[in-house]
Write a sequence for this structure.
């Protein structure tokens, strides 16, 4: 098993950079804002993705009511931009959970088998919605039931 710079175990090897280990959720928030909110990320197919500070809570908190800071999400913070630029990512049409149907205004990128990044299209470009490690039962559903982009 590999370990991060602080000696904590890494879950598995990755094609992406090592997990980002910071001291607090405030440090992760600051890192998100400095890395992503200052300028858009351009995807492999030339879509400009804008990041907003208020998306941090949706992306990095989980559980009922999004009350719990998710370290597994936060440690992959630097993967978000890499995934958006990765032409080998599996790309799918998004899903509208309320209406229970595909939603072409959203795009889902899946890498490493279970890491998901979601963007929503706007009048100009797109905005970042969320990123997460899919539960073991969700990853296969995304890959088998979703429409390819």
């Amino acid at each position: 098993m590999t370990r991060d710079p602080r000696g904590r175990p890494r879950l598995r090897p990755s094609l992406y950079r090592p997990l980002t280990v910071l001291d607090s959720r405030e440090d992760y928030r600051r890192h998100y804002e400095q890395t992503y909110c200052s300028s858009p990320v351009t995807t492999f197919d030339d879509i400009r993705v804008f990041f907003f500070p208020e998306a941090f809570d949706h992306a990095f908190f989980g559980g009922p009511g999004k009350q719990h800071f998710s370290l597994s999400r936060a440690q992959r913070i630097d993967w978000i931009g890499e995934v958006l630029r990765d032409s080998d990512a599996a790309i799918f049409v998004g899903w509208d959970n309320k209406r229970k149907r595909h939603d072409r205004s959203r795009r889902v990128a899946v890498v490493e088998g279970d890491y998901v990044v979601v963007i929503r299209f706007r009048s100009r470009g797109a905005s970042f919605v969320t990123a997460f490690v899919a539960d073991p039962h969700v990853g296969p559903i995304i890959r088998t039931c979703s429409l390819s982009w």
In short: Strands lie at 41-42, 48-50, 61-62, 68-69, 90-96, 101-111, 115-121, 126-133. The radius of gyration is 15 Å. The chain has one domain: 25-145. The CA atoms of residues 96 and 103 lie 6 Å apart.
